[in-house]
Amino acid sequence: MKSISKLVKNEFVKLFSEKKFYVILAYIIILTLIVGNNYTNNRYDLTSSSEYFPPHMKFLLKNINAINFLKLFSTDSIFTGTTPFLIIIISFLAIDTFLYDYKSGNAKFTLAAGISKFELTLSKYIYMAITIFTIVCMLFIFGFFIGAIFFGTKNITLSDILNTFVIYLIGCLPLLAFTSIVAVISTTNISKSILTLLSISISILISICDTFSKSKYFSPIGMLGLFNTDAPMSINYSILYCGLISFIYLLATFIIYFIIIEQKDIFV
Fold this sequence. Notes:
Blueprint: H1 2-17, H2 20-41, H3 55-62, H4 66-77, H5 85-104, H6 106-112, H7 117-151, H8 158-170, H9 172-186, H10 192-212, H11 237-263
Helix pairs in contact: 1-7, 2-4, 2-7, 4-7, 4-8, 5-9, 5-10, 7-9, 7-11, 9-11
């Protein structure tokens, strides 16, 4: 476990030294401010626009506070349907994590130091899981903070906060599943630019299909397309089902990735 924790720590050192984390942080802050300002500037006339707003979104807008803003914000940050900006950002991190060490030759030195391939693989998955969890938590925290400033905290209970936080956390599963898919593709030794283009193309294509068809119920990132026309109110069957599907994809691709790496001669 010590070797795994050290490898995970090294991944975070690289993340902070290359300033990627601060770019992501800036993106989160700017996105939160833009979305918060948008809802502030549209203290909607819901009577004249009633046909435009789905029932859940209409309720959240009529009773907007920090938590209800968070639910609306989730459709602009995580459950974004046809515009999967977050999953594209995660793809960039995954490409650097799973491709760089093998392309640069760092993996050879790591394995030569007595680290097993399983430990190296597990450390990369743990690093990506912690990173995704951190990003989602930052979206929740900044969203709540901006929502509290713009819309107040009236009528918010601890149960509301926990329920909304769990919705955000379950959103980590499709991000992890897609990360694992990128990891498997990276074992083909294609160039970083091609893998980047391929990852973006696949994420957009799947997101479009999931948004406008029932493929979302069989897709690794199907959960992200559940709320294209409305906002999440609470944990429901669709969220749990899509979360389970994402977890199955994550587990399957993790096993596939490890089998490929185990059979791969890193020292060639």
